[in-house]
Amino acid sequence: MAAMRRRSLWGTRFGFYLAAIGSAFGLGNLWRFPYIVVENGGGAFVLLYIFLALVMGLPLLIGELMLGKLTRRSAIAAVRQACIDPLISVGSTPRERRLLSWSGKLAVFASLLVLAYYAVISGWVLHFLVRFVFAELQTKTISSSGISGFDPDQALQVLRNSGFLQVALASVHLLVTIVVVVKGVQEGIEKWVGNVMPIFVVLLLVLVVKALSLPSAEQALRFLFYPDFSKLTYSSLLQAIGHVCFTLSIGFGTMVTFGSYLNERTRLPGAGFRVTAMDTSISLFAGLLIFPIVLGTVVNVPGPELLFHTLPRLFLGLHGGFFYGVAFFLCLYLASLGASIGLLESIVSNWMDDSRISRRAAAWVTGFGAFLIAIVPALSSSVLRGVNYQGHGILEILDGILINGILPIIALSLALVVSFKIKANLKETEFVNDETITTRKLLSHWNFVLRYLAPGLIVFAFFLAFVGWLRS
Ligand code: PFF
Description:
Elements: H1 2-6, H2 13-24, H3 27-39, H4 43-71, H5 75-84, H6 94-142, H7 152-161, H8 163-182, H9 185-212, H10 217-225, H11 236-247, H12 254-260, H13 268-296, H14 306-316, H15 321-354, H16 359-378, H17 394-421, H18 424-431, H19 437-471
Bound molecules: 4-fluoro-L-phenylalanine.
4-fluoro-L-phenylalanine binds next to helix 2, helix 3, helix 6, helix 11 and helix 15.
């Protein structure tokens, strides 16, 4: 009950959407999605991703929100409660409890790792933002006629060569995140995310229209939407599942935390659907924006630098390009800040549920921990350049282990908690808001996915990836 008293509920339902969409919408959509689509050959992977987002991601998301809403706790305490609280749990053996309790802890650990690695990429975004601001100021003072000597490749090169710069930028980002979280849920998240997201979506749409007027647009549409299944690899299924988890913020415990702040009346299936639909659409917009540029240029830069190589090229070719550059990178930065806030908020909330630590102390200590971890990926293209596996540097290795390895496992175990440990009648009342057949049908689909389909697909994806690794 103590945690109940401390927990403030969302002031408005809109507040929840803003925070949940703010947490889902981030670098995963704009930075990560396009480059993993390239790595997995285009259309077939996009189709697989959309299918998995709706058929598997959405039910998992609803499950995590429900775990939070029913227990009014963050992941670690929520899992514990789902195993023992007679009001909501069907009961569990000590062995099950020990095993399942790992899922909550692992979720918090994953959040900390992602917070750190996210800070590094957010630092890249900040770097480009500052570059564009200076370029804009320069053209204003030197001439009004257009583009001066701004070279995106050189901006990237500076970043790549300076580990110190990357560490510094990541720490600035973490500092901003901590300050926002210390202020608390309502003021912290709602305000930030609320103002930026709609502007960003409009800006994205404008840029998509511009990108689609490039001569390579048709080629891009074909690449994105024409499914050539022979391009998929043994690891594509696992990569698609990992990315669905990452982009929808599943497997971090964040959505459990957000669910715990949810107001009693909020309907979870609808809430989950809106978040999933919005997030998936934004990833597709990102594809529509980036691929006409990729396919229209001779540079061939797959991997994590893709976004930073391509978009500035589009901006530089537009009238008022620097303005677009500033606006885009500012919005992208604020989106990644929104996501980072969600991550830190979730870790802090878990910590506060389990001890008497203050929000302030928990946020600062966690932020400092993330800073220490971030040093490693921040140095991956400079000091630690020599450390790589099959040509992938530390940043990509960390990304792979975390997103394709750890997240699906946590998502799976949280799904099992919801599916096997929470009383069926409680799940039913959360799901079925009237006696219509549709909601009953949805409930049984949802149960099936959580119990059988998601675990089966995840295990199969690991198996396929393993076979691919053996054959490589
Ligand atoms: N969903 C975010 C993205 O796509 O960038 C990543 C993320 C943010 C995951 C916040 C988890 C989280 F709590």
